[in-house]
Amino acid sequence: MKSRYIVAIVSDEHAGHKLGLCNPKAKLEQLENGKIIEYYPQLSETQKFMWEVHEWGKEEALKLAGKDDVILIHDGDPTHGKASFLETMTTRVSDQILIAEANFDGWMKYKNVKLVRFAVGTGIHELGEGSSSIIITKILSNKYPDKDIGVVYHGLLDIKGFMIDYAHHGPNIGSRKWLEGNELRLYLRSIMMSEMMGGHKPPDLIIRGHYHTYRREFLEVGTNGKFIESWAMLLPGFTFKDDYTRRATRSDFKQTIGMVALEIIDGHLVRTYPFVKTIDVRTREVI
């Protein structure tokens, strides 16, 4: 009997940011006149668009799975953290946790989503030392005790022999269009050689987030007549560019958001499904 798994991978949702992912059904609270008032967040048009893309990707991944098991990996930064309150939806840190939790509720309601792993992201976005991922993991574990939910800094997941190495930080996409993927491929080669020199089989897939962009690279390394193949992937995020990222990306005019799903059968990667959308963020004017 064949073993088949769908691995859904999301990253960099930055809950609480004005341009981050936000479930419109996230229930928030505030104190007014001695009473706790519940309310739902007001989403911007950008956030509405992102939520539509998120739900499209989620539904496609679950449709792809059918009755087979789904593994969900979140590759860091589920919240925006304390990087800056200038561009957050509220100044209350607890709201970020509540929004992030709500962002995952849609996944958790499916019985075949059985294994969930959070990779700790950037400290300032995770409220320090992985606090966001740890708190969200605890909340979800209490709400869904039938699921295996955990948090790691750097994971190595064995799915019937298919090894996935996942962590938040890694190489960037490249400084020029014609250089895109070069650093990722060299990064992959270094890891493969390090593993082989230690007498170990390299991971079949290396996943990294942080740079909010999608890229996939393949490499084959041969030694003593044996050839080993590995893939490396940079993940898109669910956050649009703010003042900082515009500067960090040197005004890149493209923005990619979305998620990726993997189809793994009998320990082999059969196909990669990027559920992503890329848009041009420039303001067009004709005179």
Give the overall pLDDT as a whole number. Answer: 93
Assign the CATH architecture. 4-Layer Sandwich
Largest sheet geometry: 6 strands, mixed
CATH class: Alpha Beta
Tell me the overall shape: globular
CATH topology assignment: Purple Acid Phosphatase, chain A, domain 2
Count of the domains: 1
The named CATH superfamily: Metallo-dependent phosphatases
SS-based structural class?
alpha/beta
Strand content: 25-35%
Distance between the termini: 65 Å
- Please estimate the helix content: 25-40%
| Unreliable residue stretches | none
Number of helices: 5
- Rg, rounded, reads 19 Å
The SSE string, one letter per element, is: EEEHEHEHEEEHEEEHEE
Trace the largest sheet across and list its strands.
6-5-4-1-12-13
Tally the beta strands.
13
Condensed summary:
With 287 residues, the protein is α/β, with parallel strands linked by helices. Helix content is 25%, strand content 33%. Strands 6-5-4-1-12-13 form a six-stranded mixed beta sheet, with helices on one face.
Structural description of this entry:
This protein starts with a strand and ends in a 7-residue tail after the last strand. The protein has one domain: Purple Acid Phosphatase, chain A, domain 2. It has 287 residues and is of the alpha/beta class. The chain is built from five helices and 13 strands. Helix 2 packs across helix 3 (131-143). Helix content is 25%, strand content 33%. It has helices at residues 45-65, 93-108, 131-143, 182-197, 243-248, and strands spanning 4-10, 28-32, 35-39, 69-74, 113-119, 148-152, 154-159, 162-167, 205-208, 215-223, 226-234, 254-265, 268-280.
